Amino acid sequence: MMADPIWLDDSHDVRDAATLRAHYERTPTPASIFKECREVHPLYRRYIEAAPFVVLATRGPQGLDTSPRGDAPGFVQVADARTLLLPDRRGNDRIDSLRNILHDPQVALQFLIPGVPEVLRVNGEARISASPALLERFVVDGKRPATVLVITVNLVFFQCARAIKRSRLWDPAVQRDRSELPSPGEILQTLEASFDGRAYDAALQERQARTLY
Questions:
Q1: Can you name the CATH fold of 29-167?
Q2: Where do the Pyridoxamine 5'-phosphate oxidase N-terminal domain residues begin and end (predicted)?
């Protein structure tokens, strides 16, 4: 008889802050604390303006959500030291993140820059704007975003490079061939047998290129 998986044993679960700290011998270094800013410092602004990719985390009635957002570097604009502007470009129209923000305005963002091992983290509160003047500010290829997130910044700091270095995220030598993993069409057809996954995959690249904005 197979033994129970070790993760089912909860007798060693950490349930309070004191026990948690006991498992970590080192305390945060001074640099880990004073790197925090309550607004976008000019040096942190340079990271935001160089980033073509950000992960947006939100929380709603159904739980947590993270959503990738990407465009040309600087697509997230720094309006002032306490305000970021994030256009909502065309996507899958699930609007999970936006519905969450209606419920809870707290958001967290992680900015990634290809080749740079540090990650910039921002916490704040967002509201959803459909202001025509604001949408016009983000026109690309003659197309406006559906809405723009106006994010009030509460905390900004950089994450050290260890995670990126361990993952070798920017190392071309470890890039995977797309064919090694299931395609979107294969996944969809497996989940819904009546779906034509092969046709979906065949049209995917052209469709995405045509509907980026």
A1: Pnp Oxidase; Chain A (2.30.110)
A2: 44-160
Distance CA 97, CA 127 (A): 11
The overall pTM is greater than 0.85? yes
Report strand pairing: 53-60 vs 63-70. antiparallel
DSSP labels for 156-168? EEEEPSHHHHHHT
Could you tell me the strand order of the sheet in which 106-112 lies? 63-70, 53-60, 106-112, 119-129, 147-159, 83-88, 77-80
- Answer yes or no: are the C-beta atoms of 154 and 38 closer than 8 Å: yes
Parts of the chain belonging to CATH 2.30.110.10: 29-167
Residue with tokens 């707290």: 106
